[in-house]
Amino acid sequence: MTRRMLSGVIGLAMISTSCANLEVGNTSRLDLIQKRGELNCGVSGKIPGFSFLRSDGSYEGLDVDICKAMAAAILGSSEKVQFRPLTAPERFTALKTGEIDILSRNTTVNLSRDAVGGNGVTFGPVIFHDGQGVMVKKKTGIKNLNDLANSDICVGSGTTTEQNLNDAFQERNLSYKPIKYQDLNQVVAGYLQDRCKAMTSDKSQLAAARSSFQKPDDHIILKTVLSKEPLAPASIGGDQRLEDAIRWVIYALIAAEEFEITQNNIDSKLIEAKENPSKMSIRRFLGIDGGLGKKLGLENDFIVKIIKSTGNYGEIYNRHLGQNSSVSIKRGLNNTYKKGGVLIAPPLN
Ligand SMILES: N[C@@H](CCC(=O)N[C@@H](CS)C(=O)NCC(=O)O)C(=O)O
């Protein structure tokens, strides 16, 4: 055997070993979810428009529909979800201990949460671009952060909000006292009971909280934006198959809006695509050609199942945060790139 042939054999042996390792390393929570037949999704349960527990025991909101879309893709039915209400300080532990498979709870992506040396979780694509805001009572006449110097401010603990608040006041050389609470309802109660001059949180949460006040017009959300709060679903780090599934479910929701495929027209789009072999990109998208689903460990028609269950991203947004919803937040950045926003899905091919 020549030296070259020998190195070829060794190379092959190495490849086959690494393939074997790949197979072992390939076990994923995705298999566990499919075996269990149910997805455990961590939510807040207290934020109208995002995840809110209704009086009949069901959950609704954008974060909730992300869980439902995942269940439709992974299990074929958006009904197969167990929702777990979690406080902000509990959420990452719930992911790490396996109590939940996916966290879909107004959670901001940042380096410390993502990195192995930090919280070690991994994030899907951003589903809502938010920013931190401050709400005050109109009668106080407070217009900006300078007016809040030496004030008590109500804030949720275990959040990015806490740190941003500290940074914003430090940068301005102002002092303040944080009054910390475990969840949004407590922050709101503290604020309404005048335990603090202002409350701070993601602007979406402030809008949601204000929508439930008896006199929403008595409160204003200051123009100041303290930070970027890109909210995204998260899963345990190091599980690429689950991470990939989450990533492409979100991209499918965004791409369906780009393709103008909706809950109402999906059946006719499917017939049209089946009858028309030249509609390559739509045929791949709807699982007729290309085997995209199988590459993720899902059914090839996983996107059809998602859209039938929840509609596309725009439909989800309008249902929970659109003009006719109780929260009503302008789409702004959370629109597709074709309509002036920053949402864009890489090609599904
Ligand atoms: N997006 C921020 C803040 C999110 C957050 O959880 N905020 C508090 C509000 S003060 C909260 O617990 N909200 C929902 C709840 O009370 O269930 C983060 O990821 O840290």
List SSEs in N-to-C order.
HHEEEEHEHEHEEEHEHEHEEEHHHHHH
CATH level 3 topology of the largest domain = D-Maltodextrin-Binding Protein, domain 2
Morphology call: globular
Number of domains: 2
Number of helices: 14
- Output the CATH class name of the largest domain: Alpha Beta
The distinct ligands, each listed once, are: glutathione
Ranges where pLDDT stays below 50 over 5 or more residues in a row are 1-25
Q: Overall pLDDT, averaged? A: 92
Structural class: alpha/beta
Number of strands: 14
Q: Give a quick account of the main beta sheet: strands, pairing sense, barrel closure.
A: 6 strands, mixed
Helix content: 40-55%
CATH architect. name of the largest domain: 3-Layer(aba) Sandwich
How would you describe the overall organization of this protein?
The chain is 41% helix and 17% strand. The protein is of the alpha/beta class. The strands form four sheets. Strands 8, 9, 10, 11, 12 and 13 form a six-stranded mixed β-sheet that branches. The chain has a three-stranded parallel β-sheet with strand order 5-1-6. Helix 3 crosses helix 9 (240-258) and helix 3 (62-75) runs antiparallel to helix 13 (302-310). Mean pLDDT is 92; it is low at 1-25. Bound molecules: glutathione. Residues 44, 46-47, 87-88, 106-108, 156, 159-161, 183-184, 187, 201-202, 205, 229, 231 line the site of glutathione.
